[in-house]
Design a protein that fits this description.
Number of strands: 23
Largest sheet: 9 strands, antiparallel
Order of helices and strands: EEEEEEEEEHEEEEEEEEEEEEEE
CATH class: Mainly Beta
CATH architecture: Distorted Sandwich
Helix content: under 10%
Strand order of the largest sheet: 8-9-10-11-23-19-18-15-16
Number of domains: 1
Distance between the termini: 33 Å
Radius of gyration: 18 Å
Number of helices: 1
Oligomer: single chain
Length: 288
């Protein structure tokens, strides 16, 4: 099956492609909230990042004595998932290891991505299962891009507001690596007013302290409310000037400056015991 799966619940609709289990459209009352992809800016929409987040140093990862080429953000976003289950309001796509994945990542795994519409919100979960008999090392992240400006707020400033009112330190990637140094927070009392020039130095990454919930949108106007499960790191990204904002919750990050290409040296990298499963997720509740 190559056609997107379309879900609907009340005034929400969602389309999910089997390629990468990637969202293609998310609307409320017919208004598109998801970036629709444009190769002149960025052709992605909402890729799933697995088994790494960020680039591999010199395009290669190492796991113990094993070494292989690995593209940025891993291979899941470029692989076709199987549709395991669907209803009018939910679907589950699954990726398992095969000869091609094992050439890059020599492990037996099952990655299940579930999208569901319920109670006026979008719920997305990822379950990573170790299907082998050795520990499974990995990172997992989400990379959804939403309209900037949101429909109905075309002439209004947009902000990201952290529910915990924190001012987390900022990290900037340098040469594809995560430096140890931290920069002053762009948040004030949990609020960040967005501007395109903030992304001229690439993504804004918050390795700690951003919390488990935030909102994105215009004050007293259209906004998206997010909650995060088992996703302690946050990145905000766009191509400068592009009409989208990526709100990216991660478990795992770029290789640190000075570290080797070992996957286990990445901040937030996990290791699952045989037959163990880890769950990650986020919700989006639109208010228009």
């Amino acid at each position: 099956m190559t056609d997107p799966v379309t879900l609907s619940d009340a005034d929400l609709t969602l389309a999910v492609s089997p390629l990468g289990a990637e969202m293609q459209s998310f609307t409320k009352a017919g208004k598109e909230l998801l970036w629709q992809g444009d190769a002149d800016w960025w052709s992605g929409r909402a890729p799933i990042l697995f088994p790494i987040v960020g680039p591999a140093p010199e395009g290669r990862i190492r796991i113990g004595d094993f070494e292989a080429e690995m593209g940025q953000h891993g291979f899941a976003r470029r692989r076709s998932f199987s549709l395991e289950e669907r209803s009018a309001t939910s679907c589950r796509h699954v990726l398992t290891d095969d000869e091609m994945t094992r050439a890059q990542y020599p492990f037996a795994f099952r990655l299940a991505i579930t999208h569901a519409l319920a109670g006026g919100r979008l719920e997305i979960t990822a379950e990573v299962a170790n299907a082998g008999d050795t520990p499974l090392p990995f990172c997992l992240g989400f990379h959804p891009a939403f309209a900037w400006p949101l429909p109905g707020a075309e002439d209004r400033p947009h902000r990201v507001t952290l529910a915990n009112c924190a001012e987390p330190a900022l990290a900037r990637i340098d040469g594809g690596r995560l430096p140890e140094a931290r920069l002053p927070s762009p948040f004030r009392n949990g609020k960040l007013t967005l501007s395109h020039d903030q992304f001229e130095a690439d993504a804004m990454i918050f390795p700690e302290g951003a919390g488990s919930a935030l909102s994105y949108g215009a004050d007293d106007g259209p906004r998206l409310d997010f909650t995060f499960e088992n996703l302690p790191f946050l990145a905000l990204w766009q191509k400068p000037g592009a009409p989208f904002l990526c709100v990216e919750p991660w478990h795992g990050m770029h290789a640190p400056t000075g570290a080797s290409a070992q996957l286990s040296e990445r901040p937030g990298a996990l290791s699952l015991a045989p037959l163990e499963t880890a769950r990650f997720g986020y919700t989006v509740t639109p208010h228009l």
